[in-house]
Amino acid sequence: QVQLVESGGGLVQAGGSLRLSCVASGGTVGTNYMGWFRQAPGKEREFVAGITFSGGSIDYKDSVKGRFTISRVRAKNTVNLQMNSLRPEDTARYYCARSSSWSTNRIDYDHWGQGTQVTVAS
């Protein structure tokens, strides 16, 4: 059973930066696709960024391109999300998730972390 644990959220001023981390344990994570999603109050959970855990192929939501960077540290089963130039509209709870296939659709992800809150003050 794969377990995902996120960390790194917090409160930051607009224009600031945060770095989220997701540590995966259990199961066989080496051939999976890892994604970051976010959900703001009253809104649906949306794809933010994804990366193949072994191959390094990457995908981003258009509104975060150039500001967010996803990366993985294979030896530590960790996926990071560096978030720069944060905006108030980035405020949400951020979730790490695993999929067995390349996808930006949350229904294709079968394991989820508990999430970490990111709040960007204007």
Q: Could you provide a short overview of the structure?
A:
By secondary structure, the protein is mainly beta. The N and C termini lie far apart (40 Å).
Describe this structure in words.
This protein is mainly beta. Helix content is 0%, strand content 52%. It has no helices and eleven strands. Strands 2, 4, 5, 6, 9, 10 and 11 form a seven-stranded mixed beta sheet that branches. Strands 1-3-8-7 form a four-stranded antiparallel beta sheet, with no helix packed on it. It is globular, with a radius of gyration of 13 Å. The N and C termini lie far apart (40 Å). The model has no long low-confidence stretch (mean pLDDT 92).
Give the CA-CA distance, first to last residue.
Answer: 40 Å
Note poorly predicted spans. Answer: none
pLDDT averaged over residues:
92
Shape by Cα distribution: globular
Order of helices and strands: EEEEEEEEEEE
Largest sheet: 7 strands, mixed
What features would you highlight for this structure?
122 residues; mainly beta; four-stranded antiparallel β-sheet; 11 strands
Give the topology, please.
Layout: E1 3-7, E2 10-13, E3 18-25, E4 33-39, E5 46-52, E6 58-60, E7 68-73, E8 78-83, E9 92-99, E10 109-112, E11 116-121
Parallel strand pairs: 2-11
Antiparallel strand pairs: 1-3, 3-8, 4-5, 4-9, 5-6, 7-8, 9-10, 9-11
